[in-house]
Amino acid sequence: ADMGIMYNPAKNNITKPEDLVGKTVGVQTGTTGETSAKLIAGVKVNSYPDIQLATLDLENGKTDAVVNDYPVCTAYASTHPALKVLNTTSIAGQDLTQLYGIAVRKDDTQLKSDIDAALRKVVADGTYATLYRKYFFADPPYLPK
Length: 145
What we know:
Elements lengths: L2 E5 L16 E5 L3 H6 L6 E5 L2 H9 L5 E5 H8 L6 E5 L1 E2 L2 E2 L13 H16 L2 H10 L9
Parallel strand pairs: 2-3, 2-4
Antiparallel strand pairs: 1-4, 1-5, 6-7
């Protein structure tokens, strides 16, 4: 997933990550959103234990933007029409593209086999693409193998 910058266009015009300079940005502690926001010199980063607290401060005008995974931002903004989300793949020259995955213990071959079979099934019957569109608001960029 890419990184999302969620903001209120009635209060801020953000068209690129550099537009955050001089602004206050909300992030969730310990996430790639926090790491990404800290890459931009001149940005005040407010870290929150929960992303909902960051989004509340954005809505209440206490921050200018929220930086988090693009799918998280788009899901939130889809039910909060005053907010917009900028999709970005890099901040301060750093590639932010992330892939999600499923981890299993190396010796748990049966679980891995079961997961692989289930993934093949949902890809083949179209369920994967349907769910991806529902929760990520876009076509899947590729299908898992």
